[in-house]
Every structure is written in structure tokens, then in C-alpha cells.
Design brief:
By secondary structure, this protein is an all-alpha fold. It has 18 helices and no strands. α2 packs across α5. The longest helix has 26 residues.
């Protein structure tokens, strides 16, 4: 057993966690080739063991009390915030990396919630990279995001300043959070309508910074994984007004009417965000035409269920879908070569729409046979 492990086994909480975090920061902040006394060249294995025993307390018989857990969270925030920027995520991965086990995800969720409330960008940036590595559509990431929505959008109706200024603290985390929450609340029917306050927050964030939704793509040169909130946002903009107005047999409420107005603002911000993507000179495809086809099929389902008086709502939704497809194609964020047949199918599937027909003729025309 190393000197460090011998020392830690005789310490009680919180001293053992303080010492464990100090060793993790020291080890992973050292220059390559530096040997830390007591590690004997097996830094990674020992770091993980220390983390499991004295931060996650996987082998502890009883759980930490609420006060002790709060103390631990404060220590984690402080350690990551004061660690050198280049080593923060390495330290974070030692603690929370690997398979998403319950003890890790519970502590991580509490840590991220605290970091959000205290505007601790160091922790939120690390959590953002963790979200990308696990995929923003995955269950662990969606579970984390759902808890944040409950904490900051559902339990408290008043505007939360910390949640409101989230993009200025960690744009990357905000981008990945938007991707996750639009997965949780796809806005396809009454059961998947997002909280009104969440819609307000997202609309304000995106309208204030048109590059926010592309923040994850900026890292593609150094991080293979990236998330894209645009497909989920298209669901909100195109299907949202239809769901809010047609899912209720009675007259829509004031809050629902406010959400419809907010969705119009969000739709404009999404189009402007796609325009901004062109100026970023990035070449990644953000959309798949198959995603737009799914939206079109959902629209068709709504059309079959509605009365003739709902035709205006359907055509307004098709207009929005056509605008998104047109701007995405023009900005290069959706490559028609891979979805030419799907674009033609979208045009044929839905009721006639002048804009959608023009886009289809321009981008989905059969290539000329020159053989």
C-alpha cells in the first residue's frame, strides 16, 4: 500500500476528502515525468482508488449526512476552480469518468446544481465535456438535465438570476443543456410540452447570442464528440404552436398564448443562429434531412387528426419547416446530397406549400444524366 493510502485510511471526513483532493490536483497538475512521493509510477490507478474511497465513498457503510455532502460539494467546486485550467477535466474524469454508476451520477448532479447556483464556470465546463462524451441524448445526461430543470424551472416560478446568466458563465454547458432538454421535451404532443419558464430562458439565451447553439461544434478539432441543439429546437418552433393550440379543446390560456409568442421569437432566433453558423467557417453538418422528414411526418399526423379550421395552423408550421430547411441548406449546415430523396418526400408528403416547393425544386431536382 502506498504512503498516501496508508495516511488516508486513518483520517475521518472531511480531512480524508481534503487530503484526497489535494493529492489529485497535485498529481494531475504536475509536469510530465514528475514523480509524486507515494505514487510509485501508478498515478492513474491510485488516483481512481483514492477517488472511489474518499470522494465517492463507494466502500463506506453509511452515507454522508446532508451537511457532510454539502461540505464535500464545496470542496469539489473549490478544488476544480483553483486547479490549473489544463488539468481540470483530467481531475474531473478521475472522479466522474467511466461507467455512469449511481454513486457518481448522484454526486455529479448535486455538484452541477451547486455550480450553477454559484456560477462556478470551472465545474460547468467540465460537466459540459462529460455531457459530450456520454452523448447529450443519453439517459445519464438527460437525467442530469431533467433535475436541473426541476430545480430551476419547475420548483420555483420566479426568474432565477443564476440560471438566467448561465451562457455567460459556461456557453458550452448551456449549448449541451439545450440539446438535452429538447430531447427530454420534444414538444410533439401535450405530454412533452416543456415548462413555460424553460422556453423563456432558452429563447432569451439564443436571441442574445446567435453563436450559442454552435458552441459545441467549435471544439470539434480537439473533441471528436459534439452536440447540436438545432434539431430539437426545430421541433419546438415548428410543432410547438400546433401542439399548444390544437391539443386543447377549450380556449387557450394566457400562459399558452405567451408561449406561442415566445416560440415565434425562438423561431426567428434559430434562423439567425443558422445564419451566424456560416460566419463561423465551420464545415460540420448540423442537420440530417431524415430529421426534417420525421418532423414532416409528425405534422402530417396532426393534419389527419384536426378539423378543417386548423388548416392555417398546419400551413404556418409547414412555412416554418420550409424556412429552416432553406436557411440550413444555404448556410451549409444541411447537405442536400445526402438527403435529396428525403427532401422530395417531404415536399410530396405535406400539403402544397410555395416555399417548400421552391426549395425542393432548387435542391432536390434529379441530377442531369450526362452519360
Amino acid at each position: 500500500m502506498t504512503q498516501i493510502m496508508k495516511r488516508l485510511q486513518y483520517l475521518e471526513f472531511p480531512e480524508c476528502s481534503i487530503q484526497a483532493l489535494e493529492y489529485l490536483v497535485l498529481t494531475h497538475s504536475s509536469q510530465p515525468g514528475t514523480v509524486i512521493p507515494g505514487f510509485g509510477g501508478h498515478e492513474e490507478e491510485i488516483s481512481i482508488e483514492i477517488s472511489q474511497n474518499y470522494i465517492l465513498f463507494q466502500n463506506r457503510k453509511g452515507k454522508l449526512s446532508a451537511v457532510q455532502e454539502l461540505n464535500l460539494l464545496e470542496m469539489l467546486c473549490h478544488s476544480l476552480q483553483t486547479a490549473p485550467e489544463g488539468s481540470r477535466y483530467t481531475i474531473f474524469k478521475v472522479i466522474f469518468g467511466g461507467k455512469p454508476e449511481e454513486c457518481k451520477t448522484l454526486l455529479l448532479t448535486s455538484l452541477v446544481s451547486m455550480a450553477l447556483s454559484t456560477s462556478c464556470g470551472a465545474v460547468l465546463d467540465c460537466a459540459a465535456l462529460w455531457m459530450q462524451e456520454h452523448d447529450c441524448y443519453s439517459k445519464p445526461v438527460c437525467d442530469l438535465s431533467r433535475t436541473l430543470v426541476e430545480d430551476y424551472c419547475i420548483l420555483f416560478s420566479d426568474v432565477n438570476p443564476a440560471f438566467q446568466r448561465l451562457p455567460s458563465v459556461s456557453p458550452l454547458f448551456t449549448c449541451n443543456l439545450i440539446t438535452a432538454v429538447t430531447t427530454i421535451y420534444p414538444f410533439r404532443d401535450k405530454k412533452t410540452i416543456p415548462p413555460a419558464s424553460l422556453l423563456e430562458y432558452l429563447t432569451e439565451w439564443i436571441s442574445d447570442d446567435y453563436c450559442l447553439c454552435s458552441e459545441s461544434v467549435r471544439l470539434v478539432r480537439i473533441q471528436a464528440h459534439f452536440s447540436c441543439p438545432f434539431p430539437g429546437l426545430v421541433n419546438w418552433c415548428v410543432l410547438g404552436p400546433l401542439v399548444l393550440q390544437c391539443e386543447n379543446s377549450n380556449e387557450i390560456s394566457v400562459s399558452e398564448n405567451t408561449s406561442i409568442v415566445t416560440l415565434s421569437k425562438l423561431h426567428l432566433s434559430v434562423l439567425q443562429s443558422l445564419q451566424a453558423y456560416r460566419s463561423m467557417e465551420l464545415s460540420q453538418e448540423l442537420f440530417l434531412m431524415s430529421t426534417m422528414l420525421v418532423v414532416a411526418q409528425t405534422l402530417l399526423g396532426h393534419q389527419k387528426q384536426k378539423h378543417p379550421t386548423d388548416k392555417d395552423l398546419i400551413h404556418s408550421a409547414i412555412d416554418r419547416l420550409g424556412q429552416v430547411i432553406q436557411v440550413a441548406l444555404e448556410t451549409g449546415s444541411l447537405k442536400v446530397e445526402r438527403g435529396r430523396s428525403e427532401l422530395r418526400k417531404i415536399n410530396k408528403l405535406l400539403p402544397h406549400n410555395r416555399l417548400l416547393s421552391m426549395v425542393s425544386r432548387k435542391y432536390a431536382a434529379e441530377p442531369m444524366d450526362v452519360s
